[in-house]
Amino acid sequence: MYFDTAYIAKFYLNEPESERIRTLVAEAGSVYSSSWAMAEFHTVVVRHFREGRLAQNRMEFVAARFDYDLAVGLWQLTPVTSSVLRQTANFLLSAPRLLIRAGDAVHLTTAFMLGEREVWTNDRHMTLAAPSFHLTARSL
After folding, report:
1. Per-position b or e across 50-72, b if 16+ CB within 10 A of its CB
2. pLDDT (0 to 100) of residue 29
3. pLDDT value of residue 30
4. Would you say 6 and 124 are in contact if contact means Cβ atoms under 8 Å apart?
5. In 3-state terms, what secondary structure has residue 73?
6. What is the CATH number of the domain that holds 21?
7. What is the mean pLDDT of residues 56-65?
8. Rounded-to-integer distance, Cα 42 and Cα 36, Å
9. By residue range, what is the domain housing residue 29?
10. Contacts by 131-135 with C-beta closer than 8 Å and gap 24+?
């Protein structure tokens, strides 16, 4: 099972789909993603703090819990290597009209290179781009 960063963040933050995502993760045992998610995850958590949706102590707790869960293998993060970036470029050049951010393209490429057939995301652009990366986007 492959999650983009938004789904990983929803696991920790109380959002409308969070409980269902926690159930998916519990059933999967471990979830794959790109190491790009480390930077994106912390960006999301800090944004929630900045916007007043998380107190500082809660922000720090969520970040520490994510680090702990990484250490115990809940999240299996694949490195962003030059091979991943080359393949990302190839996918993008094969579909130049796609509206997709670089990080989302890296997620899709990583899922493809891991042999995943699906990627869990609620991002509209990523969902539309998934077939160009030979993937199906799933969402709750």
Report:
1. eeeebeeeebeebbeebeebbee
2. 79
3. 81
4. no
5. coil
6. 3.40.50.1010
7. 97
8. 11
9. 5-138
10. 132/91, 132/94, 132/95, 132/98, 133/91, 133/105, 133/108, 133/109, 135/108, 135/111
* pLDDT (tens digit per residue) in 1-42: 999 999 999 999 998 899 999 999 999 978 999 999 999 999
3-state helix, strand, coil in the chain (%, to 5): 60, 10, 30
Amino acid at 74: L
The rounded distance, in Å, linking the Cα atoms of 139 and 73 is 23
- Tell me the torsion sign for CA atoms 115, 64, 11, 39: negative
- Strand pairing category for 118-120 and 136-138: parallel
* Contact (Cβ atoms closer than 8 angstroms) between residue 27 and residue 34: no
> What are 20's two structure tokens?
């269902």
* Tens-digit pLDDT profile for residues 64-106: 999 999 999 999 999 999 999 999 999 999 999 999 999 999 9
Query: How many domains are there within the chain?
Result: 1
Angle between helices 102-113 and 36-50 (to 10 degrees): 140
